[in-house]
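In response to reviewer comment 3 from the previous cycle, which asked for concrete evidence that the modeling workflow produces usable outputs, we include below a single protein chain processed end to end. The sequence was submitted unchanged, and the resulting C-alpha cells are shown without manual editing.
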Amino acid sequence: MRLFSKIRTLFARFRQTTESEFITETVSVAKDAPEFKPSSNKSEVLIFDPEKRIFVLKRRVAKVALYFPEQQRIVLNDNHGSTEHITFSTEIGNNAIPISGYWDGLEKPRVGLYDSQNNRFVLKTDRQSELILSYDQTALNQPYVPLVGDWNGDGLDTVGLYNIATGVFYLKNNTLQESVPDLIFNSQPVHEEIIPLVGRWYGDNRDAIGIYDKKAAIFYLKSLIESEFNSDRQFIFGIGNPKTIPLVGDWDGDGIANIGIYEYDKGLFNLHNRHEGGLADNFFLFGPVNEKNLPLVGDWDGDGSDSIGIYDVESGVAYLSNTNQAGMADQVISFETGGQRAIPFVIRQII
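The workflow returned the following C-alpha cells.
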C-alpha cells in the first residue's frame, strides 16, 4: 500500500508544482503496472522507463535561444559556454516567428517556426526532420500570432493561431496529423492592440488562453478551451501605457500561471500573483533601458518559479534574474550576432 500511496503523492506533486530540470526522485512500479506515459504540466514531468519499470520525476529549466531569420538558424547558448546550432532546410519567409514545445514527446523539446509569409508552421521533430503544417480554414496575408500549448491535457504541446484582425482563435490537439483545427472561436474585443496569451490559470494540467487589451489595460482569462470565448476572469491591471508588453509566469511557484506587464520605455516590471486588479505584488527596474529591448520569462535556475529577464537587442546579451527584484543579473548570456537581426525566445529543456 505504501508503494501506491507514494505514486499517488508523486502524481499530486506532478500536477501542482513548477519548473526546473533535475532528476529528483524515482519510484519502483510493480511488474504488472501499465506502461503509460503520464501527462506533463509545465514543471515536473514523470517519465516512465519501460526497461527498469520505474517512473523518473524530472524538472525543466528555461534556456534562452535566438532565431536568425537571414540564416534560418536557431542558436541556443547557456552560461556554461556551450552552444547549439539548429538550421532549417525548408525555405522560410523573412518574418518567421520562432516557437518551442513538447509536440514530439515529453523527454525533449523541439523548436519550430511560424512562417507568416506562407501561413504555415515548420516544426522540427528531430535535428534533421521537419514537419510542415498549415491550417485549412486560415488565409494568407492575415495578421496571425502563433500559439503553443497543451490544450487537452495529454502532456503534449500543439500549435494554434490567433488572428489579430478578426479575434479568431484556431487551436489543434494533434500537431502531427491533419491540418484541420479542432477548435475555432471568436473573442472580444477586437482591435490591433489585443495580444493573445497562453497559461495555466488554474493549475489544472491544461493550457488555456487569454487576451490582453493594451488600450484599456484589461486582461481577459479563460479557463476552458471551448467553442466560445467567455472569459472567467476580467480585470484591469496597469495604467494603459501603450509602451507595455504583457507577461505570463508562475512568479510564486504555486503551479498557477499569473500575469504581469513590462514597461519598456522605463525598464519597469510589474508582476501580479492574483487574477484580479489592483496594485502589482512586485514591481522593480531591471536591466538596461532601451525601447528595443525585449522581456523574457522562464525558470532559469530550476527552483520551481518563473522569473524575468531582458534581451538587449543592440549587444546580443540576455540578462536573467532568478529572484524577480532589482539589482545585478544572476545570469548573463552573450550571443555572437554579428549585427544581424535576431529574435529571442525561451526553450524549457530537460538537461
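Residues 2-16 form the longest helix (15 residues). We consider this sufficient to address the reviewer's concern, and the full set will be provided in the supplementary archive.
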